[in-house]
Specification:
The protein contains 15 helices and 24 strands. By secondary structure, it is an alpha/beta fold. A 7-stranded parallel beta sheet has the order 1-7-6-5-4-2-3, with helices on both faces. A 7-stranded mixed beta sheet has the order 21-22-19-18-17-20-23. Helix 8 packs parallel to helix 9 and helix 12 runs parallel beside helix 13.
Length: about 500
């Protein structure tokens, strides 16, 4: 096994040489993604890197020449999932000489060379800070016939300088920062993603403009702690200003962002959301717990009154805002009284939805060694009570929307039952999932439909009347033509468009 430190960036084409000296057909690849939106966007970059190096996406039903696993270290049983998947890939690789397996992402950053010690059939391991090393690691592993492990300790260049092959014709991720300076006791991300690094506003806006020029209607600004953007260059109002600037890009219809931190959520951001028509009235604001004692143990730098005050200000400025959250149940030391405070806050907050999690220890985090680990049975019982309460709140909020008109950006893959029900699906401006009746054959993902809500369920809306309007878009044209946006690397605010 060869193990090196630090990123390498080389570019070229790939193929397997034949005895007559000619090159074979380009090698195919598949990227499998686990975890958060950051990983989804990183996988778009990995696809862009591989295609820039001459690889092609594997055809449906075919076995790829290269499989890349982009891993997560946050979700429960992440390690078992990785090594289980690697075990399933071993006989596939044995049956396909020349096949290569690469592992990247947060778990690769954490486990490093342990991956090839436990799964010696892996060819390349790279971390969160050196995505650009993947093509050369694969080529080096092929030539040297040994596994290549290369982990960088810190980010040397912002990932957006790398080429990206976008998955959607109509909606795109745009990273504005990477890393996190917070020290939440349950979270391993800062040790794997590093300190926060912010892009310059001009680079971000140039990337958005390049995407819109290719038909994209919606962008989501990404950051581990998105609203602390600007701290690195000393501008605490930078995020609000960025929202206004992004919303002013001609042709961009929807701007979203995720995930903010209550500590850094300021009044100027609320004003930017309310004043900028393109910025959606949709806010994901992680709570984690409604108990001040638990928030203190989590090292979350806000308390319940501060959190509720933010929601009051948001709703005063945007009465139609849909607010979602994250909540952890059963954090070490959480008492029944602490949990009751979480239930009380959820009842007051009237979230449109919540991502609820049962606490499980993550090795390497302070919380994993804390006293007062809550018994699993108690965690499960509390979790079920919380889910029941939130479903009740979500149902009431969605039923209140019956009869209202919603604008839906038609999406691909949002409705698992669409084929059976004859409906299409997409997202309203506030982020709610809408399943709508559609007997018009030319409605495409990326088009925009307005329709009236006829039914509200806890996790979606239904509109079973005929659409009130249908607008064909450049995004729909791109989807229909099989085109996806590409950003060949955005540096110094000057992107080019393929």
């Amino acid at each position: 096994m060869s193990e090196r430190e630090g990123p390498r960036h080389e570019r070229g084409t790939t193929g397997v040489a034949r005895p007559d000296g000619a090159a074979s057909a380009a090698r195919s690849y598949e990227v499998r993604t686990y975890g958060c939106q950051m990983n989804v966007h990183d996988s778009e970059r990995l696809s862009g890197l591989l295609e820039d190096a001459g690889y092609v996406r594997v055809a449906a039903g075919q076995t790829p020449d290269v499989v890349v696993l982009n891993t997560c270290a946050v979700r429960e049983n992440a390690d078992n999932r990785l090594y289980g998947n690697l075990g399933h890939l071993r006989p596939v690789k044995d049956a396909h000489p020349g096949m290569q397996i690469a592992v990247g992402g947060c778990l690769a950053q954490k486990d490093r060379g342990e991956i090839v010690r436990r799964a010696p059939w892996v060819d390349a391991v790279f971390g969160t800070h050196n995505l650009g090393a993947l093509p050369v690691l694969l080529e080096r592993a092929r030539i040297e016939r040994e596994a290549q492990v290369e982990i960088a300790e810190s980010l040397e260049t912002f990932p957006s300088v790398l080429p990206s092959r976008r998955e959607s014709a109509y909606s795109a991720w745009v990273s504005i920062s990477v890393g996190c300076d917070n020290t939440c006791t349950f979270c391993i991300v800062p040790s794997l993603r590093g300190k926060e690094k912010d892009r310059r506003p001009g680079e971000i806006l140039a990337e958005i403009e390049a995407l819109v020029a290719q038909g994209v209607l919606e962008v989501t600004l990404l950051g581990q702690n998105v609203n602390s953007y600007g701290r690195e260059f000393g501008d605490r109002y930078a995020f609000g200003a960025l929202l206004r600037s992004a919303g002013a890009v001609d042709g961009l219809e929807r701007v979203r962002f995720t995930s903010p931190h209550p500590r850094d959520f300021t009044d100027d951001v609320i004003a930017a959301m309310a004043d900028t028509p393109a910025v959606c009235h949709s806010l994901h604001m992680p709570l984690q717990s409604g108990s001040d004692a638990v928030l203190r143990a989590m090292r979350r730098s806000y308390r319940r009154d501060r959190y509720l005050g933010i929601l009051d200000k948001v709703r005063a400025a945007m009465p139609d805002a849909a607010i979602t959250t994250d909540i952890i149940v059963g954090f070490p030391g959480e008492t029944e009284a602490d949990f009751e405070q979480t239930l009380d806050l959820v009842a007051q907050a009237s979230f449109s939805g919540a991502f609820t999690f049962q606490y499980s220890p993550r090795p390497g985090t302070p919380a994993a060694g804390m006293d007062g680990q809550v018994p699993r049975a108690a965690v499960q019982e509390r979790y079920e009570r919380l889910v029941a309460l939130q479903d009740e709140k979500s149902l009431a909020a969605n039923r209140a929307l019956v009869g209202s008109t919603v604008e839906v950006l038609v999406a691909e893959g949002e409705g698992r039952k669409d084929a059976a029900t004859g409906r299409r699906s997409g997202r309203a401006r506030d982020g709610r999932l809408v399943h709508f009746a559609c007997d018009v054959t030319d409605v495409r993902p990326g088009d925009v439909v307005t329709t009236a809500v006829t039914y509200g369920a806890p996790h979606h809306l239904v509109a079973d009347g005929p659409p009130l309007s249908h607008r064909r878009t450049a995004a729909g044209d791109a989807y229909e033509a099989g085109r996806r946006p590409t950003t060949p690397g955005v540096l110094l605010g000057m992107p080019t468009v393929r």
